């Protein structure tokens, strides 16, 4: 333990006193100062250090080890040294000056550090306010809970969307405002145990006992030690979207019913037309001349063409509506089924079908895939120069994320200006006497490919044939 | 041959289609006794031998019913439902006739107890062919309850 006394409680003293006070093995016993307004006096008083006006008194203190002269006055140091009988160390002049400088810079450094720290705290506060502001004023609903599912915070977005004041809901259990209670329990337990859930659609209770649809992303809230302390949920109001979805489903249903009714009602008179034309041709053929029979035959042709149109339209309206489960099917199996479906068509036209060996398997609606390839292949058989036999080649390329299949023919080809429009409904490039058809087949093909998240396009040269490419994603 | 001769009830509201169905049934085969009613309520009256069908001689119980689904008053599916839940009538084979080939409708038809299902094509020849097949199965191959 060192016992010390100071001469001077000005700037030096006031800086040195608190520093010395921090060291447990240094004790300041007295301070000498003439000027009663010196700043260090107040500090000395606070620390309980006695003060004397006369520095020479310090030499009388028992057990004093050192006197430090902080006044910078060499006369005081020499006067003290002259009367020093007890062997007390007298530090003055350069030594005290050095100490003073040391203490002063230390203090400055401390002040600087403190300033920096203060600045950091201010910045941190700003950042906290900034983040709080974002959360608070977000148009999205942001609600946090503790692990017992009690609401801890409730932002302005939540107030606006649900209609409650935050003070009314903070502290209450989240289930009070969650409409689908079972979903709430299940979902929150899952999040606390396993982690985040995103874009989950559910319903919340609004003030006045209504409800709204929300899309909720729920995450764990963790403390510094990574312990789960609750949840934070960010939600969007999707009531409008839900309403539109419902309307869309209803109007699709209406449309389907409409198409069904129309096709039914259109088919009935058609059947009458064809029926009586047939009876006339069969039972009254002797009473009709060649022209009469020809006209009746044309009536029957037109009726059956319209029948096909109605059938294809109905089919188109049902793609996407009636879907079979997607299963893993080998493309070769699909093509074998297509061959079965088109057997007579292939035989009658002596069509050659070359399929590359080792085709992959794809996940698809098998029935629709058969329909799609049947349409493409029967087109390839149909659109061939009259004096040629159809040659069709089917193969694929394995691309990283998808398979690219092709159906190549030796047909009449498609003029480049029509390549982009041939998938459009009712788009026909030939009159029905040259090549029959409804103009719906390729639209059905495209719709089926799109239902499989794929894409289809065609390359062609007049007189040399066309190649249809389509891609199907791997899983 | 006698056991193959049956009464057939056609339930159909379109007069033209009645002609075609009769034409198809009478195509170079056994001539059957054909009875026609034009809406669902009449069909039920006929089958339960009520109202103008009270005379059992003139309106005998059919051995086969060709039933259109879209009918005025009581629709075909309802007629089928009532018919198949009646212990006396449920053994009569019912062939549903329809314009659509909607899967849901076909499924519902079978669920209600339809024995067969014919989509009416536009082409009369095709229709005659289909009815011929139906006849072959239900009238000639199958032995029907009298």
Structure explained in plain terms:
The complex is a heterodimer of chains A (475) and B (146). With 475 residues, chain A is α/β, with parallel strands linked by helices. Chain A folds into four domains: 108 residues, Rossmann fold (3-Layer(aba) Sandwich); 100 residues, Beta-Lactamase (2-Layer Sandwich); 76 residues; 147 residues, Heat Shock Protein 90. Chain A contains 13 helices and 17 strands. In chain A, the strands form four sheets. Chain A has a five-stranded parallel sheet, with helices on both faces. In chain A, β1, α1 and β2 form a beta-alpha-beta unit. Chain B is of the alpha/beta class and 146 residues long. Chain B has one domain: Rossmann fold (3-Layer(aba) Sandwich). Chain B is 38% helix and 16% strand. Chain B has five helices and five strands, in the order βαβαβαβαβα. In chain B, α1 crosses α5. Chain B starts with 6 loop residues before the first strand and ends in a 5-residue tail after the last helix. At the A-B interface, α8 and α9 of A face α1 and α5 of B.
Biggest sheet strand order of chain B reads: 2-1-3-4-5
User: How many individual domains of chain A?
Assistant: 4
CATH superfamily of chain B: Response regulator
Low-confidence stretches of chain A: none
Distance between the termini of chain A: 81 Å
What does the average pLDDT of chain B come to?
83
Biggest sheet descriptor of chain A? 5 strands, parallel
Number of domains of chain B: 1
Number of helices of chain A: 13
Mean pLDDT of chain A: 87
Percent helix of chain A, as a range, is 40-55%
Topology, number of strands of chain B = 5
Low-confidence stretches of chain B: none
Order of helices and strands of chain A: EHEHEEHEHEEHHHEEEHHEHHEEHEEHEE
Radius of gyration of chain A: 47 Å
Proportion of strand residues of chain A: 15-25%
> What is the CATH topology of chain B?
Rossmann fold
CATH class division of chain B: Alpha Beta
Strand content of chain B: 15-25%
Oligomer: heterodimer
Question: Tell me, what is the CATH class of the largest domain in chain A?
Answer: Alpha Beta
